[in-house]
Specification:
The chain is mainly β. Helices cover 2% and strands 50% of the residues. The protein starts with a strand and ends in a 13-residue tail after the last strand.
Length: 294
């Protein structure tokens, strides 16, 4: 059964990450320039405490680090947060510093501990954003070009496939992934969503290799099989889910971030919990959260 985990009133909630070490959910409010840490109750479906750290730039996504703390993707570059409440340290090159019409967006960590993070263009139309691979030594490599809204990054349980979506295309694509070299090739469409019924945003992959995708302006999250078939739909009481994470002690609790941004006054009144985090139980546990090799 779907329930409200936290009435966060986020403008643009995103990037939920379950931390087994901290036993809590980290997530961001992009437009509010905040990273949140939400602690859970005994059943993992109720938030018992939520705190946040504020930054001077929009926060696109976060990654948990092996040494503890977070790697944070901001508008123009990355910063390492060694511990909650500590000062951040710049990490890698500020590769978007000369691209003010872009900011970092969605990302995930591969099985080898590298961060894959994409950018979004401010007009959501100009195809000059890219997807980047960030290595543990701070090197940043451009992996895909010609994007507008890089989203939905994830890896298959066996590490042989990389999933990605450029949201306006309404398609989830899959790539062959070489973990040794950190390269992708052989792109193919896994699932094409119809236009006008929601756009694929952030995703999570479960242990069976199924992909959960949040459909922005579609009011639902869906589960896609490794063959590309839509096998399950969970409706939400708000139109703009943004991303899903599978966590909790058994990794069988889904956490869905949502957005209130852009809703007109009528829609906002009809969706009083827009910007909240929602939760429901799943049958197949999610993959263990990838940790950046830092």
């Amino acid at each position: 059964m779907l329930s409200l985990f936290l009435d966060a009133a986020a403008t643009l909630g995103e990037s939920p990450r379950w931390s087994e070490a901290d036993h809590c959910l980290y997530w961001v409010d992009i437009d509010a320039k905040r990273v949140h840490r939400s602690r859970i109750g005994a059943d993992a479906m109720i938030c018992t405490d939520d705190t946040y750290m504020a930054f001077d730039q929009q926060v696109g996504c976060i990654a948990l680090c092996r040494s503890g703390g977070l790697l944070i993707a901001l508008e123009d570059g990355l910063r390492h947060l060694p511990a909650w409440g500590a000062a951040t340290v710049p990490f890698g090159d500020a590769i978007l510093a000369d691209k003010p019409h872009q900011r970092f967006n969605d990302g995930c960590v591969d099985p080898q501990g590298r961060l894959w993070v994409g950018a979004v263009t401010s007009d959501k139309a100009s195809p000059d954003a890219s997807l980047y691979r960030v290595d543990a030594d701070g090197r940043i490599t451009e992996m895909l070009t010609g994007l507008t809204t890089s989203n939905g990054a994830g890896f298959s349980p066996d590490g042989s496939l990389f999933y990605h979506t450029d949201t306006p295309t309404h398609a989830i694509r899959k790539f062959a992934f070489d973990g040794r070299t950190g390269t992708i090739h052989s792109p193919a469409v896994l699932h094409q969503f119809p236009f006008g019924h929601g756009r694929p945003d952030g995703c999570a992959v479960d242990e069976a290799g199924y992909i959960w995708s949040a459909l922005f302006d579609g009011g639902r999250v869906v589960r896609i099989s490794p063959a590309g078939d839509l096998v399950q739909t969970v409706e939400l009481p708000t139109a703009r889910p943004t991303m899903i994470a599978l966590g909790g002690p058994d990794r069988k609790t889904a956490y869905v971030t949502t957005a209130a941004k852009g809703l007109d006054p009528i829609a906002r009144a009809e969706q009083p919990n827009a910007g909240g985090l929602f939760t429901f139980r799943v049958d197949v546990p999610g993959m263990k959260q990838g940790l950046f090799a830092l």
